[in-house]
Amino acid sequence: MRLFRDVSFAAQAGEWVEVRGPNGSGKTTLLRGLAGLTRLEAGEVLWNGAPPRADEFRADVLYAGHAAGVKDELTVEENLQVALALRGITVQAGAFDEAIARVGLARRRRLPARRLSAGQRRRIGMARLVLDPAPLWILDEPLTALDADGEALFNALLEQHVAAGRVAVIATHQPLAARPAREVRLGA
User: For the chain, which domains are there?
Assistant: First the structure.
């Protein structure tokens, strides 16, 4: 079964692309294909004008799926440490403190993730956005379970990311504060 066809878009440094469509239209599949996690049946993905080399591209991409992506038995801080270590990123202890405080989890930093609300678990992912220097974010429904303050924080992080000349591709059903450079519609 073909989910989509004739999808083409580009994003320059300092831009972000919004992927929209009804449930089941292929948004997650497209994002996973862009990130190199799912093989696309046709077409190509270019990064910096060329087909991406797997090892280099992995270092440039921060992919976050629609689930929170945290380990229940690990604390907020441990979840961040593991996620960054898996990507080979070293962060000074003070940076962890600042990121955790920025996303509103300072008082919960030593709690296991299983004791956090869905929105607080999502904030762990936002702390990861603060700490990971990846120039390309590929994010699937990043506003899920966030309250108004969490949505505002995410939007601020997105604006900061693109203002620094970086790129984001985001699938979302919820409106974001900033306007995307491009919008890709699937299943329309």
Answer: 16-40+50-185 (3.40.50.300)
pLDDT band at 1 (very low <50, low <70, confident <90, very high): low
> Which residue type is seen at 150?
G
Which token pair is 163? 């203002």
* Closest alpha carbon to 13 in 78, 60, 58: 60
Distance (Å, whole) CA 174 – CA 58: 27
| CB neighbour class for 125 (10 Å; exposed up to 12, middle 13-18, buried from 19) | buried
pLDDT at 118 over 90: yes
| pLDDT tens digits for range 3-43 | 777 888 999 999 999 999 999 888 999 999 999 898 888 88
